[in-house]
Every structure is written in C-alpha cells, then in structure tokens.
Write a structure and sequence with these properties.
Blueprint lengths: L1 H15 L3 H13 L1 H7 L4 H22 L5 H11 L9 H13 L3 H13 L9 H23 L7 H22 L1 H6 L7 H6 L4 H5 L5 H21 L11 H20 L13 H17 L7
C-alpha cells in the first residue's frame, strides 16, 4: 500500500510538473543564463523543471527592477501575487514556480527575503562595509540556494539546517562574482556594489568607479575581491557533497563554471569597464570533465 501511495504521489507530481507554463519558462533560461541552463541539464527531469522555474522567477523578479524600472508599489504587487497558489496564477513564470513550490514544499520565507533584496536596488543602495554587502548578497543569491534545496534534496543523513551555511556562502560567492564581472555595466546605471571601505583601502572612490577609472589601484582592488570570492567558493563547495547524489553534478558544475568567470576576469586583465568576462559554450564543454572530477572528489563536512 505504501509503495502504491508513493507511486501515486510521484505520478501526481509528474502531471503537475508537465504544466504548459514550464515549457514557457525555458526561453527565459536559455536567454538569460547559458551557464545555468548548461549545468541544470544534469538534473533529473522533475527537479530540472522545478529549479529552472525557480530561476525564471528569480530572474524575472530581478528584471522588474533592472529592465522594467518598476515602482516599489508594483514590486509589492508582484510579491503579493507570487504568494498565491497555482490556480490563482495567470503569469507563466509565477504559475510554474508556484507549482514547483507546492510540489516540493518550499519555504516561502526565502522567497520573501529574495524580493526584499531586489527591492534594495530600487533605492540604489550603497554598501559601506563587506558585512553590509554580504547582507545584500544573501538576499538576492543565497536565498536562491535555500529555495532550491528542498527541490534537489539532501543525501541520506544530512539535513537542511546542516547544509544551510554552505548554501549561504555559495550564494555570496556567486553574487560577488556577478558584481565583479558587471562593475562596468552597473556603473553605467549609477550603481556601485563594491564596499566603500574596500574602495578607500585601495585609494579609490565611488566616483572613480562611476567614471570607469582603470589603473593599478583598480587592478589591486579586483585582485583582492577575487581572492575573497575564491575563498568563499572553497568554504562553500564541501556543502555540495551533502546534497542528493543525483543533484551534486548539476549544482557542483554550476558553481565551478561560475567560479571560472573569475579566471576570465583575470584573462581580460581586469578590464571589466569595457569587456564582459564569460565562458563560451565550447569552453564550458571543455571544462565539464574537470568540473565533474572535482565535484566527485568533494567530501561532506565532518558530522554531516
């Protein structure tokens, strides 16, 4: 009886996850993040659809501020609509994500924190310290990992709470990588995410970043931040070994391919004001065996 009940639940989830809205969000993934689309292809079908629906929700939410320039009131309306169950969703992204959230029992607390982080960009927030920037990175990136963990699952004997600190660090590492890659692009929109205490330490100002000052001070600053980002990846990656075996390749490869963006920043000699560091599809394919080897060698933290 229990076996048939479980099979029935799995079958119901399969039907829900085949909703047409999931096919619609695929285009968002392909257009907005080739690295994420490449890595999540390694996930089982249902988890892949759910995680991509989550990404589409996160990306669309972020784009409301970055591309559509919505008002705080409009963002709050989006927040309220995002809380609704699938049967009350007309937007394909919200419908797909609400189905995935319901099927996997995702805690909406992290969804709320994510939107809180996106709202910070509406006021062009300035970050005085690394601690302040970490708070922003947690909201817009670590929460994505925390939302995805119930979807991808944990290895036997590991718990969400044990894995949570590693997911938080990984999110901060990923967002810091984004920030370093996009320094020039963000400056065009009047945004500087780098902590002002770091700018001061290297003899720079916010105005210097906005004006695209590129000199030895800026290069030294970028080197410092890249060391910080790599340290965060090193601290976070053991947590991948706490995930369900079928999920580890996708999560680990995604993290390592993103870490490779730091290498690309060095390759372009830190010229992020005029160039965009990225890994091409062929380079991703070339890196894949090495990434999988590194993921397979990861050891879960002692006691997990």
């Amino acid at each position: 009886m229990a076996g048939r009940g479980y099979a029935g639940m799995a079958g119901k989830a399969e039907v829900q996850m085949n909703d047409p809205s999931f096919a619609q969000v695929e285009g968002i993934i392909r257009a907005k993040s080739k690295t994420f689309h490449f890595a999540t292809a390694l996930l089982p079908h249902i988890q892949r659809r759910a995680v991509r629906a989550l990404y589409a929700f996160c990306r669309y939410t972020d784009d409301l501020v970055d591309e559509h320039k919505v008002t705080p009131e409009a963002l709050e309306e989006w927040r309220l609509q995002a809380r609704q169950p699938p049967q009350q969703q007309n937007h394909a992204v919200l419908r797909a994500w609400s189905i995935a959230r319901q099927v996997f029992g995702v805690d909406v607390r992290y969804q709320e924190e994510l939107i809180d982080g996106v709202a910070m960009d509406l006021v062009n927030h300035r970050y005085q310290t690394w601690e302040e920037l970490q708070g922003y990175c947690y909201r817009v990136a670590s929460t994505v990992g925390l939302l995805s963990m119930p979807i991808i699952g944990m290895r036997e004997g590991a718990t969400f709470e044990q894995a949570k600190p590693y997911a938080v660090r990984l999110g901060i590492a990923l967002q810091l990588t984004n920030i370093l890659r996009d320094v020039g692009e963000d400056a065009q929109f009047g945004r500087v995410y780098l902590p002002e205490e770091d700018l001061t330490a290297f003899g720079l100002t916010r105005a210097d970043i906005l004006e695209g000052v590129f000199d030895q001070r800026f290069i030294a600053l970028m080197r410092f931040e890249i060391v910080r980002a790599r340290a965060l990846y090193a601290q976070a990656l053991p947590g991948v070994a706490m995930l369900a075996p079928k999920a580890r390749p996708a999560v680990g490869v995604a993290a390592l391919l993103y870490r490779a963006i730091l290498d690309e920043i060095e390759t372009i000699q830190y010229q992020v004001f005029g160039l965009r560091a990225h890994t091409t599809l062929w380079k991703k394919i070339a890196l894949l065996p090495r990434c999988l080897h590194e993921v397979n060698r990861l050891q879960a933290p002692v006691g997990s």
